[in-house]
Amino acid sequence: MKNIICDIDGVLMHDNKLIPGSEKFIARVLEQGNPLVVLTNNPAQTGKDLQNRLASAGYPLIPEECFYSSAMATAAFLKQQAGTTGAKAYVIGEGALTHELYNAGFTITDINPDFVIVGETKTFNWDMIHKAARFVANGARFIATNPDTHGPNYSPGCGALCAPIEVISGRKPFFVGKPSSLIIRSALNHMGAHSEDTVIIGDNMRTDILAGFQSGLETILVLSGVTKPEDIEREPFRPNHVFRCAGEIDIV
Q: 151: pLDDT confidence band, cut at 50, 70 and 90?
């Protein structure tokens, strides 16, 4: 029985509406008992938030512990980096990111932070850019939850918010989220799984499938999101399987 890492947007959801057939796929996975992680690059929601989002759209209730975000992966990575002594972080992001960092033992501050951590937020402003750039230029380590430049309807993503900080400070952020294999390894650790027994399901060749490919996972591309059939040929790597939507997946 395969372990499953499944993306949300473009695979299970479009905005806050389910993609027809995907709820049957999730119901079958839960019934079979496959170990499951529902993975998202978006750091702005907690596991409980994500659980409620999918349940409200009509999905069977997925256990909260099955959800894993770039905020959780970022906190796990930084806890390892900071060691047992704790560290100080200046955070640009929503409450879910701050919550995960608090749980990892970080002090959230704008006084001499060790790290500048950026995630999606709707409250980005000049003061945040100024402080973050100054801290990074003076030696704080620059970490970003994911490299996504934009979301639905061209809403600014984490990568876009990092851009002015990078230009001013002259230093690039380290990205935790897909296509980095770091978030895949973190998700595997979260579910107690190994790469050779795990399949990743995603809608984006350049994030989900690339991350899975680089991490040694079996890859399933669905064509219900970002990547279209003609896009596959443009990449130097290929998914192991391609389906029109999650509802058609029959190999897990």
A: confident
Strands (DSSP E) found in the chain: 3-7, 13-14, 17-18, 36-40, 67-69, 88-92, 107-108, 115-118, 141-144, 174-175, 198-202, 218-222, 241-243
For residues 19 and 71, what is the distance between their CA atoms, to the nearest angstrom?
25
What residues have CB less than 8 Å from 125, skipping those under 6 apart?
Answer: none
Each residue's pLDDT tens digit, 60-82: 999 999 999 999 999 999 998 87
For residues 19 and 245, the answer to whether their CB atoms sit within 8 Å is yes
Q: In a 10 Å sphere around its CB, with 0-12 CB exposed, 13-18 middle and 19+ buried, how is residue 138 labelled?
A: exposed
- Residue 206 carries which DSSP code? I
Q: Beta partners for 108?
A: 89
Task: Report, as residue numbers or ranges, the catalytic residues.
Answer: 7, 9
Indicate the average pLDDT of the chain.
Answer: 95
Give me the phi and psi of 17, to 5 degrees please. Answer: -115, 135
